[in-house]
Amino acid sequence: MFAAFLTDLHEILRTNNDGLEKEKQLMNYSSNLMNRVIQSWINWQEPQLIQSYQVKGYTVGKAVERSVQFLFGVLTYTRKSVERNGHIIYPIDNLLGLERYDRYSLRTKYALAELSMVTSYRKASELIEVVGNVQASKDTVMKVVHEYETKYKEHEAYLEEYGTEGKCKVDYLYIEGDGVFVGGKDGTNKELAHFIVHEGIETNGQRKMAKNLKQFVGLGHQKTLNHVENYLYRTYDLKNTVIVTNSDGGKGYSQKTFKSLLPVVKGHEHFLDRYHISLKLEQCVFVPELIPVFQNAINNYSTRDLQCALDTLESHVETKEQETHVKKLRAYLRRNWKIIKPYHLRELSGEKQGIGIMESLHRILTFRMKRNSKYWGKGLEAMAWLLTTKRNGTLKEIFLEKWKEAFALDDRLVAELGKCPNHFFEDERQKVDNIKNYAINYHKPSKQTKERLDWYKGNEN
Question: Does one domain contain both 330 and 360?
């Protein structure tokens, strides 16, 4: 076989074709070679695998050919099935990580998902054909993205159902929230609720970065808040933690919203985002020379200086519109004065850091989802989840569905016994978008409900 390989290689390399054509021929040859090698491996290993199932009472089925697209090319191979009580297994498919009707390998799907995060579905299908030996349409890329949406929902349902109380203790925890508007195909703007949680800023060489940063995003504001709350519950013991929150104060992102997330904590400091304060000043202060005066008054947290700046601005009023600007600015500053208080004047350790980073993190979403005036349909939320889970470092875990391994043995044993399989995930797939409200029996709560209530109250286990 090796001698034949050298002969074939010699014929390709000694032709008069240009370098591009030669490399294309080498790619095709390597794909054909991989087909022959894997089929030889199957012929060698399959009898042992089949025998291990026959011992358990499985019967052997006929050999069936199958073709699957891998990154190295199309793999066509023949394998046998085993069956018991109506449950059919293809041992070779299991070893290759393939579901029964998959046309693309897991790694190929993962590559398509990665490409979809940086360019359009059509461009992603073109790119993977250029750089690899893969044929995939834009509809295939879209299908992979939609499949990830299902995996993400099942993953969140699993964590909500089986997550246990966290034990991590930190002195400070930072939470921010804001909305991102993305164009929809129906002509309306869709708001993605975007929240971040991290443990402060750490230095890595010359670079500063948020420690253990996690992002949460979704079309449903309350649903996304629930994901944040579940993450806090599964990760932290917050009884001795000071929570620092920051937002623009818009609907759904007020101090009250963040407070609703928290159990018993050591303290809670909420900030009105300075970037949005600056925007407000630019909108309402029609005398540009006075903007630094307002900024200094806010930095010094001086009501006297602020009143002086407002009076000076009011003295320049010449139109009804300018008068309205002064009234709005005065009301805005008076309403938010407590949460405008600067970081250095609060009882918080260290320099101001860890808050006001939300706007820069929006770019993770906006670079892909708003560039070139894109409009989104069903895949909007799925793409947002792809982008944020990649940043969170959980993309691979969710894509591979590693969290399902806890149920794999149960399902296999049930199937072998001929009983009904575990339909937990199928049920959750239907219910996850239709969250119902359940009455809690506070006199006789379930074990899970009691743990959650104790967490909110700050009770020790």
Answer: no
